[in-house]
């Protein structure tokens, strides 16, 4: 808990598949695939990774010229790489933009996220492939984000950070019988004790019920008696006035 952070500092497929980064077992096959994968970043990619932005969710019609027009307002751009399909040449909907200065990079990272370009709200983050240790891309079961429909949500990134874990007492595991045999026996005995205490309480409540009824009846009679006295006093006052 002391080293917990909403944004992952090192990529772990098991943690990325957990909403709070505390899972101990993978819940989908893609996590298994990512855990078994050995990914090496593309050596053909050039440029400074610490000055490069990752831009995703682009309109497939968006071009390099459009990206340059939009992102050049934050600073001088050194290179734009719009990722395209090798066979068709069509855009895959994401790009990498390298700036000349870190100040321009940070400004674009802060202001360009969720900007609308060609009727698409884009997503902007730092490049993670060469900067985040242990990074596994989405096609191998890793990455950050994902859709609910796919059942392969990933957490720990800017778009979907980890939620803060809820600290529960250690007794929870024992209560559900997840500890050792001795602890499980203890929890079952404890459960029986609670049940016997509940039964004793029910019996004592049944015994106290007639007394409560008598007390309530006595209270009602007292109220009626007081109201009658008040009425009689009021009549006496009226007779005196006459």
TrEMBL record:
SMART domains: RRM. One of its GO terms (cellular component) is U12-type spliceosomal complex. GO terms for molecular function: mRNA binding; snRNA binding. The gene is Snrnp35. It is found in: Nucleus. It comes from the Eukaryota. One of its GO terms (biological process) is mRNA splicing, via spliceosome. Residues 147-162, 180-242 have a biased composition (Basic and acidic residues). Residues 51-129 form the RRM domain. This is U11/U12 small nuclear ribonucleoprotein 35 kDa protein. CDD domains: RRM_snRNP35 (cd12237). Residues 147-242 are annotated as: Disordered. It comes from Corythaeola cristata.
């Amino acid at each position: 808990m002391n080293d917990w952070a909403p944004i992952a500092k090192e990529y772990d497929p098991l943690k990325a598949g957990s909403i709070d980064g505390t899972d101990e077992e993978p819940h989908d096959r893609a996590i298994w695939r990512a855990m078994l994968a050995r990914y090496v970043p593309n050596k053909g990619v050039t440029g400074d990774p610490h000055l490069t932005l990752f831009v995703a969710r682009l309109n497939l019609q968006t071009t390099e010229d459009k990206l340059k027009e939009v992102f050049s307002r934050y600073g001088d751009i050194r290179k734009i790489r719009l990722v395209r399909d090798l066979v068709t040449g069509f855009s895959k909907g994401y790009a990498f933009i390298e700036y000349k200065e870190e100040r321009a990079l940070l400004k674009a990272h802060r202001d360009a996220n969720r900007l609308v370009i060609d009727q698409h709200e884009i997503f902007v983050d730092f490049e993670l492939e060469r900067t985040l240790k242990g990074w596994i891309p989405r096609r191998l079961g890793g990455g950050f984000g994902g859709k609910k429909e796919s059942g392969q949500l990933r957490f720990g990134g800017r778009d979907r950070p980890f939620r803060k874990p809820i600290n529960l007492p250690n007794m929870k595991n024992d209560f559900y019988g997840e500890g050792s045999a001795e602890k499980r026996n203890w929890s079952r005995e404890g459960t029986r004790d609670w049940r016997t205490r509940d039964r004793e309480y029910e019996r004592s409540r049944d015994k106290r019920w007639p007394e409560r009824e008598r007390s309530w009846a006595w209270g009602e009679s007292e109220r009626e008696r007081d109201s009658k006295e008040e009425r009689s006093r009021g009549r006496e006052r009226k007779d005196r006035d006459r």
